[in-house]
Write a sequence for this structure.
C-alpha cells in the first residue's frame, strides 16, 4: 500500500519543482466528515492557526452548518479574516498593544464580529477604555484554566489565571460594571487532554501514567467548567457560548453538556501529532516534498531542505517525519536540516536522484509558514494551487 501511495504522489507531482507543500483534498474531505461524525451535534469552531489558508477555511465552513465561527490567534489575523468576509471570530489569546492600532479601532466602529479573550482585570479595563474611546461595546470571552495540579506536577498549559469559581466571579464583577465591554462567552480548553497523545511509542510506563492523568483531567475539567458556568449564570451572566476542547479530545469534550462548541483545526490536515491517539483515526492530508540530490552510500538519500521543525518543547517528536516511501527514516545524528536532510531507506521502491521524499510535519498550520502556496490534489491530479497566509504576505506571530 505504501509503494502504491508513493507512486501515486510521485506521478501527480512529476513536473513540480521541489520543495513544495500539498494538501490531498480527498483525505482532507474525509477528515471533515470524520470530525463531523465525532462532534455529537455540537457546533465546531475552526482553529485558523492550524490551517492558515483562506480557501481551505472556506471549504470546511461550506461543508456543513455545524461549522460555525473561527478561532484566530491574533487581532491582526482576525482583521485579515474579517476583510475576507469571515464572521464570528474569537481571538484565542489576550491582546494588549494590538488593540491600539487604527485598523482595530476602525473594525470596532464598523461592527466587526471579533471577540477578545480576557483572564484578568487588566485585560478588561484596557478593553473598556478602548470601547469608551470608540463608542462601542467590545465582546469578551473569559478564558478558564483547565490544568490539573498535583504535588510537584503541573499537568496542563500555563495560560489563564482564572482557576476557581471565586476567580471567575471576581472577573465577572469587573466586566459587568464596565459599560463598554460584554461577556459573550467562556472558554475552558483542556489542553492536556486535547494536545497530548494516548501513547508514547517505546515508553510503556510513561504511557500508563499519561493515560491515568488524562482520564482524571477529563472529569476535573468538566467539573470545573460546569461549576464556573453555573456560578456565572447565577451571578447574572446571560449565557453565551461555552467553548472547549480540540481535535484530540472531541469525544470527551462533546460529552460535556455545558459545552456548546468545540474548536477543531489540526485534525483536517492530520499531522504526525495525531498518529498516537486511540479514539480516532484521521487520514494524512497535508505534507511536503523534498528532492533527493545525493546518495552518500547504499540506502542513504540526502535531500535538499526539509528542516521544518514544529514548535513546543524541543525533542524528536517535533521533527518532520518521512511519510513516503513507507519505511524511510531520518538520521538520528542529523535529523531534518535547513539545507539538507539525509533519509535512510532500504525498501522495495527504487529511488533515484531527483525523486521526492514525501514528509509530514509534526503539527498542522505551522507548515504553511514555510510555503507560499499549497498544491491541492484530488483523484490523481493537481486541481488547484492556493496561497497560504505567507503567500498573501501575512505573518501574524
Amino acid at each position: 500500500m505504501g509503494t502504491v501511495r508513493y507512486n501515486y504522489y510521485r506521478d501527480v507531482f512529476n513536473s513540480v519543482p521541489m520543495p513544495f507543500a500539498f494538501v490531498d483534498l480527498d483525505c482532507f474531505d474525509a477528515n471533515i466528515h470524520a470530525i463531523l461524525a465525532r462532534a455529537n451535534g455540537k457546533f465546531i469552531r475552526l482553529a485558523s492557526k492550524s490551517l492558515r489558508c483562506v480557501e481551505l477555511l472556506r471549504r470546511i465552513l461550506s461543508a456543513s452548518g455545524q461549522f460555525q465561527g473561527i478561532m484566530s490567534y491574533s487581532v491582526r489575523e482576525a482583521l485579515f479574516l474579517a476583510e475576507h468576509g469571515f464572521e464570528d471570530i474569537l481571538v484565542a489569546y489576550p491582546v494588549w498593544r494590538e488593540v491600539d492600532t487604527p485598523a482595530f479601532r476602525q473594525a470596532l466602529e464598523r461592527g466587526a464580529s471579533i471577540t477578545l479573550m480576557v483572564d484578568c482585570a487588566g485585560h478588561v479595563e484596557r478593553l473598556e477604555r478602548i470601547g469608551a474611546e470608540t463608542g462601542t461595546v467590545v465582546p469578551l470571552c473569559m478564558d478558564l484554566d483547565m490544568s490539573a495540579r498535583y504535588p510537584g506536577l503541573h499537568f496542563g498549559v500555563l495560560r489563564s489565571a482564572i482557576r476557581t469559581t471565586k476567580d471567575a466571579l471576581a472577573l465577572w464583577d469587573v466586566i459587568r460594571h464596565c459599560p463598554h465591554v460584554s461577556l459573550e462567552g467562556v472558554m475552558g480548553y483542556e489542553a492536556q487532554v486535547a494536545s497530548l497523545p494516548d501513547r508514547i511509542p517505546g515508553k510503556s510506563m510513561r504511557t500508563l501514567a499519561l493515560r491515568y492523568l488524562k482520564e482524571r483531567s477529563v472529569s476535573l475539567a468538566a467539573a470545573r467548567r460546569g461549576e464556573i458556568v453555573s456560578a456565572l449564570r447565577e451571578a447574572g451572566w446571560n449565557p453565551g457560548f461555552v467553548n472547549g476542547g480540540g481535535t484530540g479530545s472531541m469525544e470527551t469534550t462533546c460529552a460535556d453538556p455545558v459545552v456548546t462548541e468545540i474548536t477543531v483545526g489540526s485534525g483536517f490536515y492530520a499531522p504526525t501529532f495525531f498518529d498516537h491517539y486511540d479514539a480516532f483515526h484521521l487520514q494524512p492530508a497535508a505534507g511536503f516534498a523534498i528532492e533527493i540530490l545525493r546518495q552518500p552510500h547504499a540506502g542513504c538519500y540526502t535531500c535538499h531542505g526539509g528542516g521544518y521543525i514544529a514548535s513546543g518543547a524541543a525533542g524528536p517528536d517535533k521533527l518532520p517525519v518521512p511519510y513516503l516511501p513507507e519505511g524511510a527514516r531520518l538520521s538520528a545524528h542529523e535529523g531534518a536540516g535547513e539545507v539538507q536532510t539525509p533519509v535512510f531507506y532500504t525498501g522495495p521502491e527504487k529511488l533515484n536522484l531527483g525523486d521526492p521524499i514525501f514528509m509530514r510535519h509534526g503539527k498542522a498550520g505551522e507548515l504553511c509558514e514555510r510555503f507560499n502556496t499549497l498544491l491541492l490534489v484530488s483523484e490523481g491530479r493537481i486541481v488547484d494551487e492556493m496561497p497560504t497566509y505567507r503567500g498573501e504576505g501575512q505573518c501574524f506571530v
Remarks:
- The two ends are 39 Å apart (CA to CA).
